[in-house]
Amino acid sequence: MLFADIVGFTSLSERLDPEQVKHQVDRCFERLTIDIAAFGGVVDKVMGDGIIALFGAPYAHEDDAERAVRAGLKMQQSLAAMGSELQNPFRMRIGVNTGEVLVGSSSSGRDYTAMGDVVNSAARLQTLADPGRVLVGEATYNVTREAIAYHPLGPVEVKGRQEALGVWEALGAVRPPGARTRRTVRFVGRGPELGLLEAQARLAVDLGQAQIATVFGEAGTGKTRLVEEAASRLVATDEVRVLEGRCVPYGEANVWWPAAEMLRHLLGVTSETSDGEIRPIVAAGLTTILDDVGPEELQRLSTAILHMFGHETTLRGGDRLRNRAEVTWA
After folding, report:
1. Contacts with 107 (C-beta within 8 Å, 6 or more apart), sequence order
2. Backbone angle region of 279, left / alpha / beta, with phi > 0 → left and psi within -120 to 50 → alpha
3. Residue 38: per-residue pLDDT
4. Rounded to two decimals, what is the model's pTM?
5. What is the CA radius of gyration of the chain?
6. What does the alpha-carbon distance between residue 207 and residue 199 come to, in Å, rounded to a whole number?
7. Which of 33, 42, 88, 147 sits at a 20 to 30 Å CA gap from 62?
8. Taking a C-beta distance cutoff of 8 angstroms, is the pair 84, 70 a contact?
């Protein structure tokens, strides 16, 4: 659950014409609902100066809590960016909480909504937040702390609850969307599926031909763990190199991201590599990997790879080529 509320809406309504206030609020909410949808959320309600959004209902994902926090951070960024466009810039407080809720249509049979203590706690977190901040509850913190940086605010007594509410302030993302933590527990089961992947990998090695395998299933059924186990066994038995690339599951994404990420690992390009360093690093990596590559071919391949990474490149005629669908973290 994500609760967002405009700060100072009442005082602004007292000073300005109602139509003017409504126009500004509508502009802000139009942009913020785009952010919510980009991360897989659904706007549950818009009530005056507030937005309530659901992540995980009616459609569930493996990382709905992380999506909600990233959406909250992105909403704060979007609102700050709109400040110069508005005569009276808004600020928001945002609260995010995770847990079991009752979802379905209301008694009137028309509105799909969520009910339960998680909803009430999310609303309390929102009221505790300072303007421009995103606060989360303990459950949200526990499942997102490896992807989001937090500052602990400690247990807080809130009205209507017998127990204190654990509160953390979300500071920003520390890894890209879709990244998963390596498992260290023993792999159990999935023998037939694992056998199919291993057989197909051996076929690719023996024939020297590309093979494609697709693993699909419901959220949380162990797809990533299965692929990790198959890759680790392949590395242990054959002289092969495993490269990983992820399709960013939400937000604005470079269409070349999976292949680009694999090439980054192969060539030694990291997120800290500056624009001035990246071309010589790519050229050196290609020279090491390829045999007898000429200067013209090296230039051509380097330009293509830099374009795939999202960097501005120059073609032979001097024209600039720009991959505009760059990856952004939120």
Report:
1. none
2. alpha
3. 86
4. 0.64
5. 24
6. 12
7. 33
8. no
